[in-house]
Amino acid sequence: MAMDSLARLRRPPHASRGFTLVELVVVVSLMGIGAVMAMPSLAEAMRGQRLRAATTDLTSALLMARSEAIKRGSQVRVTPRAGNDWATGWTVVAVTAGDQIDRKDMLGTDVTVTRAPVSIVYERSGRLATPGVLRVQLAAGAQTPRCVTIDPGGLPRQTMGTCP
User: Fold this and answer.
1) pLDDT of 82
2) If I label 112, which of 13, 47, 77, 79 is the partner at 20 to 30 A Cα–Cα?
3) Can you tell me the distance from the alpha carbon of 80 to that of 89, in angstroms, rounded to the nearest whole number?
4) Which stretch of 7-11, 42-46, 54-58, 101-105 has the lowest confidence by average pLDDT?
5) How many whole angstroms separate alpha carbon 154 and alpha carbon 66?
6) If we measure between CA atoms, which residue out of 97, 90, 72, 74 comes closest to residue 136?
7) What pLDDT digit, counting tens, does each position of 90-120 carry?
8) Which of 54, 59, 65 is nearest to 149 (CA)?
9) What are the boundaries of each domain within the chain?
């Protein structure tokens, strides 16, 4: 007799393979408890991702505005979409032509923008129209805030922490 046949003969006829209902319920319960415990950290991780994305989007829009000002040889303005609230998004517009170059819709949930100017205007040289350094601070929940600093030459830079 082959070994396979012997193994079948030794196994009781009522033995079956698989999981019992009790084992399945215990495993599913443990997985549910683990998921519930992970939810707060997952929510905070999502908040952090929205903050990083908003900061990167703003930096990209500022670089595009600077590039377009140099390319077009005219002013380009970045302004919030609704009043003074940068969290509603922004538009990038060529001032003389009135062409909308880019726009960003509302930022992610819980992302707030503070210390932002009314608008950011780039001259045809790519430099800021207003003298000095401009800063925009973005925050979301318990996440470390992010600061976008625009130097007089018009180049934006991201840093973690509150704006000085």
Assistant:
1) 85
2) 77
3) 6
4) 7-11
5) 7
6) 90
7) 999 999 999 999 999 988 778 999 889 999 9
8) 59
9) 21-160
- Residue 90 class from Cβ within 10 Å (0-12 exposed, 13-18 middle, 19+ buried)? buried
- Residue 91 is encoded by which pair of tokens? 């538009």
> 21-160 architecture in CATH?
3-Layer(bab) Sandwich (3.55)
pTM for the whole structure: 0.76
Percentage of the chain modeled with pLDDT above 70: 88
Residue 13 has pLDDT above 90, yes or no: no
Sheet containing strand 146-150, edge to edge, reads 111-114, 134-140, 146-150, 156-160
8 A C-beta contact, residue 136 and residue 115: yes
